[in-house]
């Protein structure tokens, strides 16, 4: 299990490929070379910083520092969920619904995996916790963002139907049920597709990484299976929580549909 | 049977209103577009928040759950909402008699909502509301999409219905003739105030 170390020169060679692509873009006036280079630069900087932070945490594995990093990751993911909403809840709810749901699902599933399944020593050891949490957050984030967006968009568009049901004496729960169910389905479909295609169409990134690092393929497969299952569960629980809290927030204590709690539509 | 009482009821755009509708009584409400008529009805049905008191048979609204209140104080909006494909799936118990009164065939319950004309929608949503046995009716332009013959049928049906079931009716209408035909008392909205119509 010898890991071949990459030198700065190795990375520079890969970088010249991207620069070449940028030149082609310039030549064909695709107008995308600026974005491409900035994104590539961000990748280099962000991942280098992450490497530095993790290196530091491997040495200084103080629980407080680890939880600070975990919270930082959660807030960035929460912000990302909010940014992807066309009609977000106004006020603290815009950020809160997604962040709280991710906290509930990603954190509990990760902690369960670390304590019961992987049984790392200690359970919060950086080597396991941070990569696992990162994968969980990254994936639940998309599921929750899609589900919430679907919920608020449909509540807005189908206002007449919802109110017709309220008028006839349906409870808020009945009135939003179909919309809520569809929202949840839309949030879960990507991870279901990903599980169905795993290993046939796509070679998952984490498994690739472990194999490159010298892990025996079967061990890498097992880790990947574990991760996929955890992600599916985490996304499902997270999207359920988000859609439930979101749907509840669309109604007030007298079960009125309160679309005024949503902000203006964004592009 | 139902009476409706408003005490300093404060709907959007309007000054606080005191109003009493006896059981079996019909009052109409007119006023320029955007003067707050629909919003008053929505607030009375508890679809929109509002200040002040409103009670059904002298029982304050807050003593009812919201769904209870809305099924007793039935609101008919100008644009009806339908959430399933088939008309009949929106009814608890479709009453054949009501379909007859509005000259809709009894198999109208099997119609597809997406193929309804605006007049059919309006009549069917009235039938749907009445089938729900409300004790008070709040009607917003209940005949706006109907021709004269159908308007007459709807007016007759509502008149009989309030007689038989002693429901109070608050009817928003633009039509001065209709106002005279259907109501005991008419109100006009003028700069946010309710004024007795001449």
Automatic annotation (TrEMBL), chain A:
Assigned GO CC terms: plasma membrane
Its subcellular locations are: Membrane
UniProt keyword annotation of GTP-binding present: no
Q: Any idea which UniProt keywords this protein has?
A: Membrane, Transmembrane, Transmembrane helix
Family matches, as Pfam families: UPF0014
Chief subcellular site? membrane
Check the record and name the InterPro entries matching this protein: UPF0014_fam (IPR005226)
Topology in membrane: Multi-pass membrane protein
Q: Where are the transmembrane segments?
A: 6-24, 36-58, 64-81, 93-120, 126-148, 187-213, 225-247
Q: Which residues form the signal peptide?
A: none
Give the family this protein belongs to, as stated in its UniProt record. Answer: Belongs to the UPF0014 family.
Q: What is this protein called?
A: Iron export ABC transporter permease subunit FetB
Q: Which organism is it from?
A: Candidatus Thiodiazotropha lotti
Task: Report which gene this protein is encoded by.
Answer: fetB
TrEMBL record, chain B:
Chain segments annotated as transmembrane: none
Which Gene3D superfamilies has this protein been placed in?
P-loop containing nucleotide triphosphate hydrolases
Annotated Gene Ontology MF terms? Answer: ATP binding; ATP hydrolysis activity
InterPro entries xrefs: AAA+_ATPase (IPR003593), ABC_transporter-like_ATP-bd (IPR003439), ABC_transporter-like_CS (IPR017871), P-loop_NTPase (IPR027417)
Keywords from the UniProt entry? ATP-binding, Nucleotide-binding
Domain of life, per the record?
Answer: Bacteria
Q: Where is the ABC transporter domain?
A: 1-197
The family database entries (Pfam families) matched by this protein are listed as:
ABC_tran
Spell out the SMART domains in the cross-references.
Answer: AAA
Which protein are we looking at?
ATP-binding cassette domain-containing protein
Naturally occurring in which organism (per UniProt): Candidatus Thiodiazotropha lotti
Q: What is the lineage of its organism?
A: Bacteria, Pseudomonadati, Pseudomonadota, Gammaproteobacteria, Chromatiales
């Amino acid at each position: 299990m010898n890991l071949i170390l990459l030198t700065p020169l190795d990375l520079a060679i890969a970088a010249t490929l991207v620069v070449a692509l940028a030149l082609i873009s310039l030549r064909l006036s695709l107008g995308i070379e600026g974005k491409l280079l900035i994104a590539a630069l961000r990748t280099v900087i962000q991942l280098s910083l992450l490497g530095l932070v993790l290196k530091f945490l491997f040495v200084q594995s103080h629980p407080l520092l680890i939880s600070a990093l975990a919270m930082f990751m959660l807030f960035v993911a929460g912000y990302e969920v909010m940014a992807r909403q066309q009609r977000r809840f106004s006020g603290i709810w815009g950020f809160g619904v997604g962040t709280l749901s991710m906290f509930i699902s990603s954190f509990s599933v990760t902690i369960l995996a670390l304590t019961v399944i992987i049984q790392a020593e200690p359970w919060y050891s950086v080597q396991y916790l941070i990569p696992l949490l990162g994968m969980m957050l990254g994936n639940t984030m998309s599921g929750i963002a899609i589900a919430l967006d679907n919920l608020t968009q449909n509540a807005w568009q189908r206002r007449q139907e919802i109110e017709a049901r309220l008028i006839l004496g349906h409870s808020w729960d009945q009135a939003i049920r179909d919309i809520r169910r569809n929202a949840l389905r839309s949030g879960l479909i990507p991870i279901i597709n990903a599980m169905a295609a795993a290993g046939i169409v796509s070679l998952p990134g984490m498994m690739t990484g472990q194999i490159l690092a010298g892990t025996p393929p079967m061990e890498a497969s097992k880790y990947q299976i574990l991760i996929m299952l955890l992600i599916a569960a985490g996304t499902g629980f997270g999207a359920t929580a988000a859609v439930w809290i979101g749907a509840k927030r669309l109604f007030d204590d007298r079960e009125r549909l309160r679309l005024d709690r949503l902000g203006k539509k964004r592009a | 049977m139902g009476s409706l009482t408003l005490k300093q009821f404060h709907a959007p755009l309007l000054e606080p209103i005191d109003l009493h509708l006896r059981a079996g009584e019909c009052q109409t409400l007119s006023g320029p577009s955007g003067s707050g008529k629909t919003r008053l009805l929505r607030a009375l049905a508890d679809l929109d928040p509002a200040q002040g008191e409103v009670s059904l048979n002298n029982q304050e609204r807050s003593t009812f759950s919201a769904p209870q209140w809305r099924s007793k104080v039935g609101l008919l909006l100008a644009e009806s909402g339908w959430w399933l494909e088939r008309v009949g799936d929106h009814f608890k118990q479709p009453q054949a008699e009501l379909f007859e009164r509005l000259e809709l065939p009894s198999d109208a319950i099997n119609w597809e909502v997406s193929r309804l004309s605006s007049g059919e929608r309006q009549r069917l949503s009235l039938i749907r509301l009445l089938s729900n046995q409300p004790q008070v009716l709040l009607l917003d332009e209940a005949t706006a999409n109907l021709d004269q013959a159908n308007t007459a049928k709807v007016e007759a049906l509502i008149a009989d219905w309030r007689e038989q079931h002693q429901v109070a009716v608050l009817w928003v209408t633009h039509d001065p003739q209709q106002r005279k035909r259907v109501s005991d008392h008419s109100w006009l909205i003028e700069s946010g105030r309710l004024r007795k119509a001449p």
